[in-house]
Design brief:
By secondary structure, the chain is of the alpha+beta class. The chain has helices spanning 15-25, 42-61, 75-79, 82-88, 114-124, 169-190, 236-241, 265-274, 302-318, 333-342, 353-358, 379-404, 412-421, 432-442; strands at residues 29-31, 38-40, 65-66, 72-74, 94-98, 101-109, 133-142, 156-166, 196-199, 211-218, 224-232, 244-246, 252-254, 256-263, 291-295, 323-325, 347-351, 360-365, 371-375, 406-408, 423-426, 445-450, 473-476. 36% of the residues lie in helices and 25% in strands. It is globular and about 80 Å long. It binds zinc ion.
Length: 479
């Protein structure tokens, strides 16, 4: 096998190196020929498909319809919303030539679709009866990246973007919070990441939004990963694109719009929230293979063991479990064990002639030493229970880790220490120059004003001015 068998760089030695090696070695991605682009390999893409299927189901269940809008957007559209174009300009890829000629108007490769969807909304909405308009798009996005990182920051990535239009602020805010809630549930229930939800401070807002909300996950190096955002756009895009409706009373009113997105970045979150020095640790709900069966039989035993492994796999599949039988004859069982450990498979079943004679298989769990015999007869139920247990264990472990690394601090020294290994909950004055100063000193940034934080006030942890948000806000170094 061409694969490099040396161990991964340990997380404690160099977390970045660990991550960069793992995404390639576990065959999730490879580098694309254009700087900052990634090829998502089948094993990585299956994780995305599983996440996507779950999120898509939730999006549809909450009344949204999928649609698709063009990749190419007239440059003039972006210029219609001043803050939006200012925010996105440095990251735009622009098509200036096509069909062998210079274009009259350059075309932007979509960095997000508020503008083109806003343009279409203005055509589709005329009366209060057309509202709310609840759309979602699954698409690829291009934002030029100078410091690319697989899954976390790539020039092209995949996501869903929800875009909705409403009659008033109250309805649009309900939608903004509904999308945030959806993301929180996906992160917690599917990815086993106990995110903190909150509002972004003005300096961290989406370009063109009135309010931006976020889910923030803690990675095992203590850094934060913004894993999904939901924006209340007010009437900013409605003004720029003339998204208006006639009210019941006959007056012409501006719509209030929202947008919200979750992307392939979430896979980076899963890797960094659960992985260890041996490799990936995948939550069963996102694992391409929840169980791998390794048949162990040589010579005369081989055929019987292989047959039994196939039958066991069929029974597990019938129970709705994603299972793979590793029959590769070229590699040893030990090699296979390491390989599936690297790839984060939650459960491994070993099946040898002696197990077969006893009517059992040996079950090994990712993250625990030792193996236990399980009865072949009841294997589907036992495996199903073990997967449920493993999913819950990962969430519990990640929650304990987060709570142990989220410190409430009042002194600057404590703050510096807290953000060097985890997150800090502290008072802040709300001043952007003070945010910049904190960032320059510690590289930490305000992650969010948590929704569930207690109402309290005090002095800014950095400059002693009065706190601005009526509660402590969360600071962390972030990806
Ligand atoms: Zn301050």
């Amino acid at each position: 096998m061409a694969q490099d068998r040396r161990g991964l760089t340990p997380q404690g030695e160099d977390f970045s190196a660990w991550y960069n090696e793992l995404v390639v070695r576990a065959q999730l991605v490879d580098r694309g020929p254009v700087k900052g682009t990634m090829v998502i390999r089948p094993y990585g893409f299956r994780i995305w498909e599983l996440l996507q299927a779950d999120l898509d189901r939730r999006i549809k269940e909450t009344g949204h319809d999928n649609a698709y809008f063009p990749l190419l957007i007239p440059e003039s559209y972006l210029k219609r919303e001043a803050e939006h174009v200012e925010g996105f300009s440095p990251e735009l890829a622009v098509v200036t030539h096509a069909g062998g000629k210079e274009l009259e108007e350059p075309l932007v490769v979509r960095p997000t679709s508020e503008t083109i969807i806003g343009e279409m909304m203005s055509k589709w909405i005329s009366s209060y009866r057309d509202l709310p308009l609840l759309l979602n798009q699954w698409a690829n996005i291009v934002r030029w990246e100078l410091r690319p990182r697989m899954f976390l920051r790539t020039t092209e990535f995949l996501w869903q973007e929800g875009h909705t239009a409403h009659a008033d602020e109250a309805d649009a805010m309900r939608e903004t919070m509904l999308a945030l809630d959806l993301y929180e549930h996906v992160a917690r229930e599917v990815a086993a990441i106990p995110v903190i939800t909150g509002e972004k401070t003005p300096g961290e807002r989406f370009a063109g939004a009135v309010r931006t909300y976020t889910i923030e996950g803690m990675m095992r190096d203590g850094r934060a990963l913004q894993s999904g955002t939901s924006h209340y756009l007010g009437t900013n895009f409605a003004k720029a694109f003339e998204i208006r409706y006639s009210s019941e009373a006959g007056a012409l009113e501006l719509c209030h719009t929202t947008s919200w997105g979750m992307s392939t970045r979430m896979i980076g979150g899963v890797i960094m929230a659960h992985g260890d020095d041996q490799g990936l640790v995948l939550p069963p709900r996102l694992a391409p293979y929840q169980v791998v069966i390794v048949p162990i039989g040589r010579g005369d035993d081989a055929e019987g063991v292989a047959r039994a492994a196939g039958q066991l796999a069929d029974r597990l599949r019938q129970a709705g479990i994603r299972v793979h039988v590793d029959e590769r004859p070229q590699v040893s069982s030990g090699y296979k064990f390491n390989d599936w450990e690297l790839k984060g498979v939650p459960l491994r079943l070993e099946l040898g002639p002696r197990d077969l004679a006893a009517g059992t298989a040996l079950m090994a769990r990712r993250l625990s030493d030792g193996k236990e015999p399980i009865s072949l007869e009841t294997a589907p139920e036992v495996v199903e229970d073990a997967l449920t247990e493993f999913q819950a264990f990962l969430l519990r472990r990640a929650t304990e880790f987060r709570d142990g690394h989220l410190l409430t601090v009042d002194q600057w020294g404590e703050f510096q220490e807290a953000v060097s290994t985890g997150w800090a909950r502290a008072f802040h004055c709300g001043n952007s120059a003070c945010e910049d100063d904190i960032k320059a000193e510690t590289t930490a940034t305000p992650r969010c004003i948590p929704l569930d934080g207690a109402e309290e006030s005090g002095q800014c942890v950095r400059c002693d001015r009065p706190s601005a948000y009526g509660k402590r806000i969360v600071f962390a170094r972030a990806y």
